Every structure is written in C-alpha cells, then in structure tokens.
Amino acid sequence: MPKQNGLFVGGVDGGGTTFKCCISTVEGEILRSERFVTERPKDTIDACADFFARCAKDGQPAEAIGIACFGPLDIDPQSANYGSILNTPKPGWSGFNVRNELAHGAGLPVVVDTDVNGALAAEMAWGAARGAKSAVYVTVGTGIGAGIFANGDFLGRPTHPEFGHIRVTRHRDDIYAGACSFHGDCLEGLASAPAVEARFGPPALMAADHPGWEIVACYLAQACISLTLTVRPEKIVLGGGLLLAPGLIDHIREQYAAMLNGYLDMPTDAVAQLIVLPGLGDNAGLLGGAQLALKRLAGE
Amino acid sequence: MPKQNGLFVGGVDGGGTTFKCCISTVEGEILRSERFVTERPKDTIDACADFFARCAKDGQPAEAIGIACFGPLDIDPQSANYGSILNTPKPGWSGFNVRNELAHGAGLPVVVDTDVNGALAAEMAWGAARGAKSAVYVTVGTGIGAGIFANGDFLGRPTHPEFGHIRVTRHRDDIYAGACSFHGDCLEGLASAPAVEARFGPPALMAADHPGWEIVACYLAQACISLTLTVRPEKIVLGGGLLLAPGLIDHIREQYAAMLNGYLDMPTDAVAQLIVLPGLGDNAGLLGGAQLALKRLAGE
C-alpha cells in the first residue's frame, strides 16, 4: 500500500535520451518512478503528465513538479519563454516549452531549471554536498556543464554558466585537436566523453591504468582549480558518465594538489573533502527535480 | 569652508606602497584626502587615525571607516583574526591587524575587505558597473586579482577568490616560462606587469602596436571568458596599471569575441558593454573603502 501521509512533490529528470519521473517525499525519498524514452516533445510530456495523474489517483498527488532539464534552456522566470528549449539539434524540441506543456497537462505548478542546477540542489539537500553553503556540480559526459551555488542562489541568473567551454592548459603529451565545434580544445573539447573516446576508444573499455586517464584528470583538475580560485566552493561534486571510471577521482585530486603547488595551503584530506563523487548516483536528476519543486513551494 | 551637512564616512585605500585616506559623502563625493607612504604598520595606521581625527575636528567626522586593503588578508568577520594581514614578505606586516589598530586609534567602527572587493563595491555604486546586479573587478598590475559580486554579496566568503592563478591556454607565439613562483605560467605568471616586463621591457614604454599586447590580450581575454562562463556577470571592469596601455581593452574585447567564436551569440556592442575600464580611476580604492563603510552602516 502506497505511502499516503504528508506532502509529495514531483520530480522530472529531463534528459536528451530518457525522461524520468518520480513522486518524492519532502525528505527526498522516491516513492515511485517511471522512465520514458525521449521522443517527440508533446508525446514525452504527455507521458509525464499521465504518470503524475496516475500517482494522484493512487493517493500520491504532487503539490508541484520540478524539471531538471537538458538544454539549452530558458530558465528565467521573468522571461516570456521561461521553460522553453532553445536552439537544439534534437528534432522538434527547439522552441518547445516543457514547463508550460507539463503545467497544462498535469494541472500543477511546474518549475524548470538546468539538469546540473537540479542535480546540485539535490546533492546539497540530500547528497554529497549536504550542509554546504556553496557548492558546484560538474557533469562530465557527452558534454561538460556545471551548476554553481553561492550566496544563496545559483550563479549565472537569469541564464546559467557555460563552464564546459573554459580554456585550459594543454597536457604536454596531448596533441588531440579537440572535439568542441566552437572552440576546439576548450575543457569540453578535451575532456568530454566523445573527446576521450576519439583518442583512447570507449571510456568504459579503458583500463584503470590507461595513460589516457592522467590526461583527462589533468583537464578536470584544472576545472576544479578554476572553480576554487573563482568561487571558493565548499564542495565540488563531479558527476556524469566519465566519473564512473574507477580511480579517476583520485587522479583528479592528485593533479589538483600538484598543480596548486601548495598555494592555498590545503592538506590532502581537505582536497578529498572538497572534490567528491555524487552521493545520489543515478537519482540526482530525479531528486533534483523534486528539490526544485520543494524550493518553489518554500517560496525560494 | 568645508561641507558640514549630512553623513560622512571614511575610506582607506591600503596599498603596499601608499595608504590613502578620505572623507566621503554618502554619494561618493570625496571632500578631503591625504596619502602616506606605507612604512612600519603602526606608524602607517597612526597617520590614518590622525587624519580622521583632524577631519572630525574640522566638522567632517566619519561615522565609520572602510579599508580596501592589500593582502593576503583575513576578511572573515567571524574570525578572531578579522582584519589581520596574513603571511606577507612586507617587513612587520605579517599578523598585523589593520582593522583593530585603526578602530582603536580612530575610536570608530572599521570594516575591512580586499582591495579588489572594495574597488568593485565603488564601481558598482558610483562607477562603470553602476546598476549591475553582478559584476567583477579585475586588477592587472604587480599581481592579478579579482573581486566578484553575485547574488547579493562577494564570492568566496569567508575568504576571497584567487583568480589570478587560473590556468590559461598559451598564445602560440609565447615561449616565456611564466613569472608565478607557485605555478609558472598561470594567468598572473603570463599577464601580470612583471611578466610583461620580463618579455617586452617596461609596459609604459611599449608602443601601442607592440606585438606583445596581442599576447597579453590573449590571456586577459581568456580571463574574461572564464568569468563569463562561470559567473555570467553583467560587467567585467578591468583595472590596474597595465590597463592604462592605450587600446589594450580593445584588443581584449576583440580576442574575447574571436575566442568565444559566436558561442554565446553576443554582438560586438554587447562585448564592449560587458568588458569595460574603471569609471573611478585612481579613486576606486578610496571610494571602495568609503563604500564598504556605507554598506556597514546600512547593515549589509
């Protein structure tokens, strides 16, 4: 018998490949979830709305829904296009307003933010950045992006950071031109999953002692250094598919410390506490949506 | 006859070479100022206290004093060492508490922050970043540092950014090893005044068409790109001695746009409005101190 007491919120992890939906308690307990292949936008959102309608019928009505969504995305609540997917190669999605469509279909208040802002909100509430006043969530996968929280809100309002495209210093053994269609050898161009695969083959098949990991770690360590020197966050959570590689986080921490070269007087255990893996794993996006909904209900 | 109406605040621009003091109105009008060579810490602060005592006697009493101070510096109001200069090569200054000493000497509330946070506060109140909700002040001189304001406060609390030490991509014609004793070829190691002088001679003697400016602009453009992609500030104010070079700001804007390569869809005039020179010139530090005092009086 489903849990029926207390307040429930809906979370949506809107990805380019799958949309996941859940009902969560205010404590971040996922009571029920489903996933749908990301197809035509209207069909995808209809499937989400239908999920929340069935949950309500079963005694688990969401008070509000949050979508942690792929982008580019208009996340400015003051904008006429708040909730719209911006220019994207995904057929049919450019200009589609995921928020309005779901609000209409589900008959509920819906908020939307970037997938990384959502994941960060969840990690700060229930995961690896719990209790931190400032934190960053970096995803390293098909692309590289970051959600950054400081001084009580996400950075980059009314838009959002585009952290994947910062410049980095080349690793001395790396002659790869870079995979970014805009910038060639920016961070994303050198350290995203496609950039790794182009040089070393599929990341999942690379042995833990493959020398390519040192090169990847060199760039991701620079990303962490840049975040530290700019924002001084209490936590840097490194997520995304590439961070599933065993030991990569240790390489990153080592190179971070080596490159800072004692500048901030940070002992080894301080680095290990600063640069961490996600605490919520696959559920960061879903719980990110739920946390966005909770923040909305709390008036934040 | 001196202005005697209204509220006055004291501003101190605490530099490694000179300390400047002023009495300012709440509108940022400097009514009176003096400068002292930075000598032994006690003598320097005594000279400041004496200035404010004379101003009070002349009918211009400061309600509070703000110090925009050189560092490294403890700027955490919760810290037992709030207002202390940290480890510095300047003889006698390490561990000296500029705030406590001036508060005691002047008998007034004194607040202290970094020189760049102070300059940024002044530029946001009365200068080139007036009206911006988020902004950055970068100083490029003997070192490179940044004050960053977003979401209602400076970034990096309870410490401050160390932005000068981010990694950058090398200019293809630049083989200089870098001047930073910690990191060699970080931003400061490649683009600070000593790094420029080491390659091209004194910056003040470099002609406007010296090819070295393209190299300097390449690194400072990367700094602006990094700030944009991380913080999305409304204004990036570039100050410090090096920015006195005629035309350097234009080189930086051009390379910023060229390196972004259309990624953020920012027209030329948007770049010119984003990356700007200081509006307060030499007075940014003094008015920074005054603005810090005003924020304190306003309870911020």
Describe this structure in words.
The structure is a homodimer of 300-residue chains. The first copy, chain A, contains nine helices and ten strands. With 300 residues, the first copy, chain A, is α/β, with parallel strands linked by helices. The radius of gyration of chain A is 19 Å and the shape is globular. The relative contact order of chain A is 0.17. At the A-B interface, β7 and α6 of A face β7 and α6 of B.
**Number of self-contained structural domains of chain A:** 2
The CATH superfamily of the largest domain in chain A bears the name ATPase, nucleotide binding domain
Share of helix of chain A, binned: 25-40%
Q: What is the molecular shape of chain A?
A: globular
Reported CATH architecture of the largest domain in chain A: 2-Layer Sandwich
SS-based class of chain A = alpha/beta
- Mean pLDDT reading of chain A: 94
Rg of chain A computed from alpha carbons, rounded to a whole number of angstroms: 19 Å
Could you tell me which chain pair has the largest interface and how many residues each side has?
A-B, 39 and 39 residues
Write down how many β-strands of chain A occur, each being a DSSP E stretch of 2 or more residues.
Answer: 10
Q: Looking at the chains present, what oligomeric state does this protein adopt?
A: homodimer
* CATH topology title of the largest domain in chain A: Nucleotidyltransferase, domain 5
What string, H for helix and E for strand, traces the elements of chain A in order?
EEEHEHEHEEEHHHEHHEH
- Our count of helices of chain A gives 9
Strand order of the largest sheet of chain A: 3-2-1-4-5
Strand residue content of chain A: 15-25%
Cofactor (chains A, B): Mg(2+)
GO molecular function, one term (chains A, B): fructokinase activity
Catalytic activity (chains A, B): D-fructose + ATP = D-fructose 6-phosphate + ADP + H(+)
Enzyme class (chains A, B): transferase
